[in-house]
Amino acid sequence: MSITHFRELNVWQEAMRLARSVYKLTENFPRDERFGLSAQIQRAAVSIPSNIAEGNARHSRRDYARFVSMASGSAAELQTQLLLAKDLELANAQSVEDCLAICEQVSKMLYRLQQALLAGGENQSQVPGPRSRISEDAEDYF
């Protein structure tokens, strides 16, 4: 298995699905939340696939792992904001739960990706690509 582009990563594809779901969810937020919690939720959701893509474009595993770590942080931020939106009854509770479930799955995938990158060695400069392999147990996440 080799990954040559971020668009081939299952974790990136799921993160994009999450971002689309979040945008649909926030469409129904009250207008006065347009520049408040709604905008923060959208930024956090977009940050996840964006950091995966940027990390994939880096030239070292360490940099890639750092960007995956940032994506994980954005996923935690998004979960917190979604829970707040649910508590404030800004959105349908089931729709929020659906987004939270996708976010939890993405978080697990990000963790496995980060572990696979770090397992390659801190000083190893080659990122996963056509000339390298990541451990087979992480294959489901790519």
Question: Can you walk me through this structure?
Answer:
This protein is mainly alpha-helical. The protein has one domain: de novo design (two linked rop proteins) (Up-down Bundle), CATH 1.20.1440.60. Helices cover 65% and strands 0% of the residues. The chain has four helices and no strands. Helix 2 packs antiparallel against helix 3. It is elongated. About 11% of the residues have low confidence.
Relevant terms:
de novo design (two linked rop proteins), mainly alpha, 142 residues, elongated
Number of domains: 1
- Architecture (CATH level 2) name: Up-down Bundle
> Mind describing the biggest β-sheet?
none
Which structural class is indicated by helix and strand composition?
A: mainly alpha
Q: Which runs of at least 5 residues are low in confidence (pLDDT < 50)?
A: 123-127, 129-139
Name the CATH superfamily assignment.
Answer: 23S rRNA-intervening sequence
* CATH hierarchy, class: Mainly Alpha
What is the count of helical runs?
4
Indicate the mean pLDDT: 87
